[in-house]
C-alpha cells in the first residue's frame, strides 16, 4: 500500500507492506553515509538489517524512553555525524518508536541546515501517529516537545511484521491514537474497535489511521487550524503524562483517559467500553494541581484559554476555546465522577 502525502515540494510516500524492512534499500537511497538511529528497546536486528543495505552505515543506539529526547543526546548525534564526515548529501534513518523518530528528524533538520530523513517506525504508536506529519522535537525544561521543527521525511516505511515483537501493552499504547482518530473522523474505524476483531484488523487500522492523518496534514501542515483535531485528548492527556505521579503510564494510556471528558456524555459509555477492550481504561489517582500545571505549560495553551477538540458524536468533532480551569474541572468531574 502506497499512501502519498501531498505537500507540494515536501511531498512523500508512506509504504505499508509486511516484510518491507529487508527491502529498505530498494525504496530508500542508502548509497551514501547513513546515520541509523535506534534505541536500546528495539531489537538490534532491525537496525542491522538496514545497515546491511547501506554503503556507509553508522549505527547510534540511544537509551529507550523520553529521556533521550534531550539537548544532550541531540548534540551527541550531531557530533557523531560531524566525526564521520557527513555532508549535506548524506542522510538520517530512524529505526524505532516515536522518541527515535522525533529526535532523529530534529537532528536531520538541523545538521548543515537539513539532510534527507527517512523514518522506519517500529511501534504501533509511531506507525500510525508520529511517522506522518513532519513534527520533530526534543523535550526541554521539563516541557514535552517544546523545541523542534516541522521537517518532512523523504519517505516512510511501515512494516506491520515489526509489531510481532511488541508486548501487548505497547500495542494498546498505539491503539489509543487510532481510537482518537476514529472518534473524530471515521465511524467505520470506530466500528472495528467496537464490534470487530482488533488483532486481525491491525493492518487496516494502520492504513485507515494514516489516511485520516494524511488528509488533515495535507490541509494544515503547520497546525494553523484543522490539524488541532490531532490533539484530541492530548491537553488533559499530556497533563496526566507530565505530572510526576503519573509517570508509570504510557503516552497512549494517558491520551486514552484524556479522550473521555472531551466526548459528549451520551457516547462516553461506548468509548469506555472500547478503551476497556483495548486495555486502555486505567483507574488511577489524579493530582489535578500537577495535571493542570503540566497541561497548560503546554504550547497549545494561550494565556488562560486553550482550544480543545470535542466529539459530540462518533465520527465528528468541534474545535472549542475554553478556559483552562474549565477544561480541568470538566475532566475532574468526568474521570472522578
> What share of residues are in beta strands?
15-25%
User: Could you state the oligomeric state of the chains shown?
Assistant: single chain
Widest sheet, order of strands = 1-2-9-6-5-3-4
For the largest beta-sheet, the strand count, sense and barrel status come to: 7 strands, mixed
Q: Could you say which overall geometry the principal axes of the C-alpha atoms support?
A: globular
- Number of helical elements: 13
Class of secondary structure makeup: alpha/beta
Would you write up a description of this structure?
The protein has 337 residues and is an alpha/beta fold. It has 13 helices and 12 strands. The strands form 3 sheets. The protein has a 7-stranded mixed sheet, sandwiched between helices. The longest helix is centred in the middle third of the chain and has 18 residues, at 168-185.
Q: What are the defining features of this structure?
A:
337 residues; three-stranded antiparallel β-sheet; alpha/beta; globular; seven-stranded mixed β-sheet
Short description:
The chain is an alpha/beta fold. The chain is 41% helix and 20% strand. It has helices at 24-27, 44-51, 71-83, 98-110, 124-130, 168-185, 187-195, 202-219, 234-242, 251-259, 268-277, 288-295, 324-336, and strands at 2-5, 12-16, 33-39, 56-62, 91-96, 116-121, 135-140, 143-150, 155-158, 301-302, 305-310, 318-323.
Amino acid at each position: 500500500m502506497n499512501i502519498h502525502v501531498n505537500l507540494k515540494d515536501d511531498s512523500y510516500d508512506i509504504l505499508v507492506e509486511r516484510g518491507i524492512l529487508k527491502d529498505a534499500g530498494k525504496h530508500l537511497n542508502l548509497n551514501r553515509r547513513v546515520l541509523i538511529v535506534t534505541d536500546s528497546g528495539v531489537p538490534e536486528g532491525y537496525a542491522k538489517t538496514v545497515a546491511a543495505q547501506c554503503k556507509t552505515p553508522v549505527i547510534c543506539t540511544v537509551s529507550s524512553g523520553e529521556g533521550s529526547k534531550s539537548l544532550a543526546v541531540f548534540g551527541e548525534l550531531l557530533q557523531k555525524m560531524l566525526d564521520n564526515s557527513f555532508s549535506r548529501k548524506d542522510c538520517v534513518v530512524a529505526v524505532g518508536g516515536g522518541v527515535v523518530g522525533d529526535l532523529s528528524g530534529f537532528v536531520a533538520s538541523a545538521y548543515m541546515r537539513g539532510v534527507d530523513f527517512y523514518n522506519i517506525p517500529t511501534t504501533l504508536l509511531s506507525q500510525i501517529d508520529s511517522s506522518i506529519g513532519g513534527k520533530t522535537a526534543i523535550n526541554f525544561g521539563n516541557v514535552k516537545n517544546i523545541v523542534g521543527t516541522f521537517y518532512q521525511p523523504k519517505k516512510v516505511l511501515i512494516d506491520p511484521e515489526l509489531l510481532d515483537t511488541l508486548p501487548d501493552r505497547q500495542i494498546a499504547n498505539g491503539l489509543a491514537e487510532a481510537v482518537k482518530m476514529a472518534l473524530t473522523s471515521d465511524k467505520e474505524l470506530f466500528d472495528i474497535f467496537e464490534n470487530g476483531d482488533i488483532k486481525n484488523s491491525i493492518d487496516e487500522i494502520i492504513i485507515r489511521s494514516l489516511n485520516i492523518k494524511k488528509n488533515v496534514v495535507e490541509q494544515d501542515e503547520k497546525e494553523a487550524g484543522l490539524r488541532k483535531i490531532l490533539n484530541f485528548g492530548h491537553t488533559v492527556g499530556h497533563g496526566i503524562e507530565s505530572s510526576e505521579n503519573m509517570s508509570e503510564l504510557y503516552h497512549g494510556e494517558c491520551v486514552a483517559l484524556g479522550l473521555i471528558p472531551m466526548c459528549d456524555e451520551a457516547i462516553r459509555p461506548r468509548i469506555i467500553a472500547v478503551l476497556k477492550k483495548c486495555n486502555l481504561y486505567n483507574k488511577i489517582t489524579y493530582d489535578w494541581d500537577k495535571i493542570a500545571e503540566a497541561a497548560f505549560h503546554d504550547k497549545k495553551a494561550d494565556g488562560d484559554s486553550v482550544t480543545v477538540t470535542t466529539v459530540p458524536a462518533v465520527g465528528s468533532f468541534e474545535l472549542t476555546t475554553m478556559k483552562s480551569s474549565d477544561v480541568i474541572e470538566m475532566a475532574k468531574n468526568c474521570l472522578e465522577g
